[in-house]
Amino acid sequence: MTDSAPALELRGITKRFGDLVANDAIDFDVRGGEVHALLGENGAGKTTVMRIAYGLTQADAGEIRVGVRPVTMRSPRDAIAAGIGMVTQHFALVRPMSVAENLALGRSTGLRLDLAEAGRRAAVASERFGIRVDPSARVIDLSVGQQQRVEILKALSRNCRILILDEPTAVLVPDEVDALFSTLRSLVAQGMSVVFISHKLAEVRAISDRVSVLRRGRLAGTVAGGTDEHELARMMVGRPTFGVERSQDAAGPAGAPILSIRGLHAAGTHGLSALSDVSLEVAAAEILGVAGVSGNGQTELVDVLCGMRRPTAGSVSVDGLELSAASPERMMRAGVGRIPEDRHASLVGDLSVAYNLVLERLDDFTHGGRIDEGRIRDHAAELIERFDIRARPEDPVATLSGGNIQKVLLARVISRDPRLLVVSQPTRGLDVGATEYVRSQLLARRAAGAAILLVSEDFDELLALSDRLIVMYEGRIVGEMAVADADVERIGMLMAGRGMAA
Amino acid sequence: MRFSPWSTPVLVAAAVLITFAITAGPIIVAGANPIEAYAAYLVVPLTSQFTLLEVLVSATPIMLTGAAVAIAFRAGYWNIGAEGQLLLGAIAAAGIGTLVGGLPPVLALPVMVAGGALAGAAWALVPALLRIRFGIDEVVTTLLLNPVALLLVNGLLHGPWRDPETGFPESPRIAISAEFPTLIDRSRLHLGFVLALAVVAIAWYVLARTPAGLRLRAAGLSPHGARFAGINVSRTLLGAALVSGAIAGIAGVSEVAGIQNRLTGGLSPGYGYTGIVVATLGTLTMPGVAIAAVFLGDLTVGASSAARSLGIPSQLGAVVQGVLLLTTVALLALRRTRARRTDAGDAGSVSGDIAAEAQPG
Question: What is the CATH T-level fold of the domain A254-495, as seen in this structure?
Fold first, then answer.
């Protein structure tokens, strides 16, 4: 059910960043009543072209039309006035304020701030779009996933006619994705236009009327939404893809557990209980997958194992060494390698790649009280080569792409040959190539005998990598199974808190 | 490195030019030719040996407080209390200085400098602990301790330390062996200037070349990332706060032992606050701090001579300094905004903006 006239039309959009051509003469349009997906790997230019449409970035060349009228997008203000809304990957929320206040900020025009009204609208919007958020909660206390729900609510509550979603499902679980998709379907049924940026083939096929594929800044083609997955993948990467598969004959879990957690309790950011009575073990050469909707204690569990959060009760031991309430440094000394979900915050963005690679063990790179710059550079050059990091040693980490930032973190961790790896959302936001690389590295560590605790919201990832799965709900472990027996339906029920009785 | 119109040296130079344009108005109102006034402010002081040395004398205390502030800011610890820490160093110097008359200068001076550094660090200790333990904003606590330190000085001068001979509210003169020697005959340039250069050089080395310096920079750029990498951020902040206080304390020692030879109520016309200006203009790097201190010293000497030669109020020097600070901060903020608009990613931390090219020192 699509009108023929484009609601938003981009013609010949070109954007350069220095030597890099991020967008090369891209033509794109979205009609009223359709979902038009922008598919492509990370760095293909999907986000850039939509940032241009939303006025966040100015194009070097090209034309933007809304309806049939050419529009100049100097800032998002122009875009909002033209009826365009965008949910970016980096949230534009006022973190110390409540959800209701944030929604009110996006809408208020007069002098009076009606918070009760904003709260009511938030509740109505939550109900209507199936997005569950407490309007009185402060944004700073919400998980990444919950914050994104607020962003989506905010954009939807601005009465836009064209909604741009930049990888909106990256932090959502299957149930929530379904809810979001039914929301999007009802929106387009009312004549709205949706631009859906993603690199997930299944999602794109499920929701889109048309798909435009970008590859290295160029439009590889625009095809119908039902196009075959293999065809889309080929357009996207320009080569057939191979998934990472765990070889079934590889050595499996063996021996005494490396990680042993007993009766662990921990408080969340808000002081409320976030983990209750969590007990688990991970053996050598075993990957334990942790499934669950974001905000059900996984972040806190990883924080405790990273040494970044003190448990309120219970014990954690690694290789028999008691590590409850250990500092990050003690965790590292005990052989714990840590790759948490917020990879940007786990590095020092303004410092160079070389410094970040040695920051955990500066003392090993100090000679006579002085930093040994030569050895730090050599060390960086070696890891850059070994882990295929696309950067120079002196580049600040913040200037790297997400995939390369993850490789820096991975290199820092794996170069220390950890006994236990704690990994959260290792491939979120990465392109196909980087995702395969990260997964194969994790499997290589498993083959080398490391114990791995893997938290992920990517179901396929959990199923492909894990030996065993646990499901977390409201801070508790509500299910456990060998991956061979894993039943997606049942896990989905457990994740939604409906599996206890079964 | 590629040339960028937003690189720090270009930015500071632009700030100077914009400042001249803005302050031309007030100078014309004051009845002077702006070109002549700027020549008097900046060039004339450098043309005679006497005024040149006076420039360095003026630069001495603010080079020290500038270094003190820059070290704290690089760690992400916003020490606004250099003024109070300087006064505590001055009190210690005036006290110790009267007691070490029996010692030769080789012993007396180090004891006095160490005492002043300890006093400055002690004044910095409580706000640092409040910040680390309870998360209380150090901007407020360090700032509010400044008038307390000044009251302490005045309490001493109007009470136990009042000069018994003259009855003036000034402490007794310190021992001859505790006075900083002058470096050049018939000038006021004293040992404190050498001390300031040494402090700046050591601070540069520590920040740029040692693991402690790298940890401090990492903690300032990203406290979470630093903590995650096993750096004890609280201890790093405490260390930075104490070193900062100690250096500000040395500035107090330098003024007592090099210029006043006693504690006086007017010892510091806000050197601690000027240190913030110096640190900002120097973009929190040690070479920058040294250059900015001499530049502001030049401006200070020039402003007082321009008052005599051109008849414009000497306060206009402070106006130029203030406008320069605002312009610099505005341009730094503008650069940050541009960085946000052009990068999709992280805009960096506050201290990262100001030391944006990640200069090591």
Answer: Rossmann fold (3.40.50)
